[in-house]
Design a protein that fits this description.
Helix 2 packs antiparallel against helix 10 (267-301) and helix 6 crosses helix 11. By secondary structure, the chain is an alpha/beta fold. It has 2 domains: 37-162 and 250-290, 3-Layer(aba) Sandwich (D-Maltodextrin-Binding Protein, domain 2), CATH 3.40.190.170; 167-249 and 306-356, 3-Layer(aba) Sandwich (D-Maltodextrin-Binding Protein, domain 2). The chain has helices spanning 7-27, 50-66, 86-92, 125-134, 137-148, 189-196, 206-215, 226-232, 259-263, 267-301, 311-331, 333-356, 360-366, and strands spanning 37-43, 70-75, 97-100, 153-160, 167-169, 183-185, 200-202, 220-221, 240-243, 252-258, 305-308.
Amino acid sequence: MTTKNGPSGTRRSMIKTLGVAAAATVAMPNVSRAQTITWKFQSTWPTKDIFHEFASDFAKRVNEMAGNRLKLDVLAAGAVVPAFQMQDAVNAGILDGGHGVCAYWYGKNKAFSLFGTPPALGWDANNFLGWMNYGGGYELYNELVGSVLKLNLVGFLTGPMPCQPLGWFKKPVQSADDFKGLKYRTVGLAADLMREMGAAVTILAGGEIVPALERGVIDGAEFNNPSSDSLLGFADVSKTYMMRSFHQDAESFEIIFNKGKFDALPAELKAILKYSAESASSDMLWKALDRYSKDMDGLKAKGVQILETPPAVLQAQLDAWTKVIDKLGAENPFFKKVVDSQFAWAKRTLAYEKANTPDRSMAMKHFKI
C-alpha cells in the first residue's frame, strides 16, 4: 500500500508541481524578466504639433511590441537640446534617438537634404520612400551617414508627407518676380531653390517662424501643413495661404538612433524599431489626410484666404530646380551620385504610374467632389 508520504504521494506532488509550472508557462510564454531599457527619444517639434504626435505614435508602437524590454521616452524639442542640435546629441549619446527631417542636417552636407527635400521629379513622397527601400536609397543614405560624415547613427525614413504649401504671405504671390528680394523662411535644398528665385532666405526652427513674421523679420514663410501651421499661429499674423508648391513636394520624416546603443540591442528589438517605423509610416499618412483637411477648413473659418500658386510660379520653381541640381552636382560628386539614382528610379516608376493611372480630376468632376 502506498501512503501520503510514499512513492505514489511523491509522484502526485511532482505532477501537481509540474502542472502549475506548465500552466504558468502557457499563461506567460517567453516573457523577459530583464530590466526595462528606457531611451530618451527627442523630437524636433513643439509638444502640441501634430509632428510630435507622429513621433509619439511611432514610440507607442515600439513600446507596445517590445513589452517590458524597451521603452522610448518621448520628449519635445528643447527638452534636452534645441531642435537643430538633435542629431549631434544622438550622435554623442546624450540622446538615444530622435524624430526629425533630413533637411535639418543640410548644413553638414547638402546631399543630406536629398533624403528630406529632394528635387521635384514628378514623384510624391510615397514614391520617394519606394526609392529609399527598393531603388538604392538606403544604401546611399547609409554611405552618407557612415562613410562620408562618419556619424554614429542608424536611421529609418518614415511617413510620406503630402505636398507642402508655398506658405504664408502678407499679400498673394502672383508671379515669380514677387520672390525677388522677398525675405522667406524655409529649410534644406528649398533654401537653395528659393535663393535661385531671388528670395533672401532665413532658416528658422518651427517655433521661431511666426514671431519673425509678426515682427517683419521675414515677409513670407512655409512650415508644412494646415495642422502644424494652425498650431504655430500663422493665421494670427497672415490671412494669405498659398497652396501647391514644388519646393518640398516629396518629403518624409527621419528617425535616428545612436548606433552603438542600437547595435547592442538583441535582434528582435532591432526588428521592432525598424518595422515600427514602417508601420507608423502608413498610419501617419492616413492621419495626415484626415487632420490636414479638417484643419484647412478651420483656417477658412478664421478668414484665411486659401489660394493656389499660379502655374507660372510653379514653372519658375522647376527651372530653378534644374539650376540647383546642376550646380550642386558639379560641386559635390556624392550629391550627383544620389540625384542620378533618384532620376533613374523616377523615370522608371513614374512611366508606369502615368501609363496606369487615370486622371482622377475627371472622376472628381463627374461626382462633383
